[in-house]
Amino acid sequence: MAEDTKAWFVYILEVSDGSYYTGISTDLQRRLKQHKSGRGGAKYFRGREPLQVLYSEQYQCRSAASRREYQLKKLSHLEKKLLIEKNSSE
């Protein structure tokens, strides 16, 4: 599959310290495994454990996913929690 035809996902992970981590990937399960293994995952998880994917959105290109990731990263913890809760009730 060509790079520009892959689906990109923006995701929010629940973290062991109660925080949320936001990122993008073409494969959510692979990325979660990378974060959990400590190899290829984000430095954010040094001393923290990623628990589960709480929220995700799908985009057709990396640039759109990156723009949305930036928007989500600017949200407060409470705003992210409300977004996750709203999505889980739909």
What is the element layout, followed by pairings?
Elements lengths: L7 E8 L4 E6 L2 H10 L12 E10 L2 H12 L3 H13 L1
Antiparallel strand pairs: 1-2, 1-3
Describe this structure in words.
The chain is of the alpha+beta class and 90 residues long. The chain has one domain (3-77): GIY-YIG endonuclease (3-Layer(aba) Sandwich), CATH 3.40.1440. Helix content is 39%, strand content 27%. The protein contains 3 helices and 3 strands, in the order E-E-H-E-H-H. The protein has helices at 28-37, 62-73, 77-89, and strands spanning 8-15, 20-25, 50-59. The chain has a 3-stranded antiparallel sheet, sandwiched between helices. Strand 1 and strand 2 form a beta hairpin. The longest helix is centred in the C-terminal third of the chain and has 13 residues, at 77-89. The chain starts with 7 loop residues before the first strand and ends with a helix.
Quickly describe the structure.
The protein contains three helices and three strands. It has 90 residues and is of the alpha+beta class.
CATH superfamily: GIY-YIG endonuclease
Low-confidence stretches: none
Question: What Rg do the Cα atoms give?
Answer: 13 Å
Number of domains: 1
Strand-residue proportion: 25-35%
What key phrases describe this protein's structure?
single chain, 90 residues, alpha+beta, GIY-YIG endonuclease, 3-stranded antiparallel beta sheet, 3 helices, 3 strands
